[in-house]
Amino acid sequence: MAVRRDNNPEFIEALARGLDVLRCFEAGRPAMTLSEIAAATDLARPTVRRILITLEQLGYVRAVDSTFMLTPRVLELGMAYIGATNLWDLCRPHLKWLVDQTNESCSLAQLDGSDIVYVARVAVPKLVTLGVTIGTRFPALQTSLGKVLLAALSPAELDEVLAEPSRSGITPRWTPDREEIDATLRDVRAKGWAATDEQLAPGIRSIAAPVRDGDGCVVAAVNVNAHAAETSMDTLLDAHLPLLLRAASAISADWSAWHARPMETALARD
To answer: Within 10 A of 190 (CB to CB), how many other CB atoms are there?
Structure first.
């Protein structure tokens, strides 16, 4: 049975357990019984029952026969982050332009532990090996987006991140040792962009570039993603990389300008 996960007296275990219940719903199990949720979260049935009653009253789950399902209101939790950072409004025109130029799907991601999480995306109908939507997470090291974000970390931050297990549920094809990781990230820092060729899963190759704030810090990464059966690495590097770098620069400029707004203007518009 689940035990308290943090000895900090300020830590609210009940809230953590409620979030565990929300997170246990996945694509393969949109509706779950009380017993299934208890097993998935390693929580006692009475605890899960009280959490579900609370979430149902708040509008985040609904009971359907003998099962429970998430409601669309759960989207508010994720969209609050997108809205607070203005990510979608900032990135949409630049991602759309990049998609129009490359005819490939393009995304923006940020680092969360040892994973990347997709926070903006414009997709085109293509062959796909792994489905990607807003909120999808993959192991960072095996993606071009992740390599860009990892390369921006300090040595101490990198050690801490690499020590964390991935929460993506994906078993990547490429499992480098630390020497190879360090060499790869040095190369990314030297070039200013990253590439990956079927290191995460068969058929997936991509290139990525950093998005920077007004202080020059990497705050996100943007990529062009392609299927190996349709797009060669030469096409990605020779044709698409210059376009990607242009889009990354434009997003960085808009990001910096938005966050540099005078507080009075920000409050008036928000």
So the answer is: 8
Contact 92, 112 (CB under 8 A): no
Query: What's this model's pTM, rounded to 2 decimal places?
Result: 0.73
Q: How confident is the model at residue 52 (pLDDT cuts 50, 70, 90)?
A: very high
Phi/psi for 260 (5° steps) reads -95, 5
Angle between helices 87-102 and 241-259 (to 10 degrees): 160
Mean pLDDT of 221-250: 96
153 vs 188: CA distance, rounded Å: 12
Give me the residue spans of the domains in the chain: 13-70, 78-259
Helix (H) or strand (E) holding 132: none
Q: What's 262's DSSP letter?
A: -
Query: What phi and psi values does residue 150 have, to the nearest 5 degrees?
Result: -70, -35
Fold entry, domain 13-70: Arc Repressor Mutant, subunit A (1.10.10)
- Evaluate if residue 258 carries a pLDDT over 70: yes
Q: Which CATH superfamily is domain 78-259 in?
A: GAF domain (3.30.450.40)
